[in-house]
Amino acid sequence: MRFLVKILFNWIVPVQINGMQNVPVSGSFIGTSNHLGRLDPFLVYYMLDRRDIIMLVAEKYHKYALARWLARLVDAIWVDRFNADLAALRETLDRLRKGWVLGIAPEGTRSRTGALGEGRSGASYLAAKTGLQIVPVGMIGTEDKLVFNKFKHLQRPHITVWVGKPYTLPPLTRSDREALLEKYTDEIMCHIAVLLPPEYRGIYRHHPRLLDLLEEEQEGQTTEVNKQPLIGRLPSKAGG
């Protein structure tokens, strides 16, 4: 599976990954990303050279023989997106506690516009329940319409991926559980949004938490520049 994915992205669909140093080299963590097209799940196997990847597959794909074959190949977990799928939840938690890695799109489905839609609470619940690090990922270029149009004109689509710094969520409390999950879900979505170009941030583009993260990012960039040796930042004089 990984061999085929490497061929796909190295020779047919080039990928530029920024921030790969932010991905933990071992142990369990939860990767969260936006969801634009059918290529997105395969990117997980391109970016992570691991066999212990938890892939969640929507129940609607069970009717397709190819999807069932691929799901068996990667030991995926089938998920009923519209009901409380406790069996899938327990299996996911069990694998995470054993050190597996989860890649999940909190939106739960592909974006019809390319911009971020409302996040669901599954990812935030798993992150708060386990206390694992969350690695935010933003991507562009995997939109189905864009990819199919490029192939139609014998062109190669180009994918760009940004990986943010890991962070964690506090544990859930018994009181105000639903409010906390909503807050944590917004936190996850804003960490994804900050990695994306403005036109991809969707309903989170004016979210107060996103504005805070953008400000923190700008301050961090300013700090890094100030840390550079002064002589390296001085303009050179004309003539040498």
Would you kindly provide a written description of the structure presented here, covering whatever features stand out?
The chain has 240 residues and is of the alpha/beta class. It has one domain (17-220). The protein has helices spanning 2-12, 40-47, 65-73, 86-97, 122-130, 144-152, 177-193, 208-227, 230-233, and strands at 15-18, 30-33, 53-58, 77-79, 101-104, 134-140, 159-163. α3 (65-73) links the parallel β3 and β4 (77-79). The longest helix has 20 residues, at 208-227. It is globular. It starts with a helix and ends in a 7-residue tail after the last helix.
Write the layout of secondary structure elements.
Elements: H1 2-12, E1 15-18, E2 30-33, H2 40-47, E3 53-58, H3 65-73, E4 77-79, H4 86-97, E5 101-104, H5 122-130, E6 134-140, H6 144-152, E7 159-163, H7 177-193, H8 208-227, H9 230-233
Helix pairs in contact: 1-2, 5-7
How would you sum up this structure in a few lines?
The protein is α/β, with parallel strands linked by helices and 240 residues long. The protein has helices spanning 2-12, 40-47, 65-73, 86-97, 122-130, 144-152, 177-193, 208-227, 230-233; strands spanning 15-18, 30-33, 53-58, 77-79, 101-104, 134-140, 159-163. It has one domain (17-220).
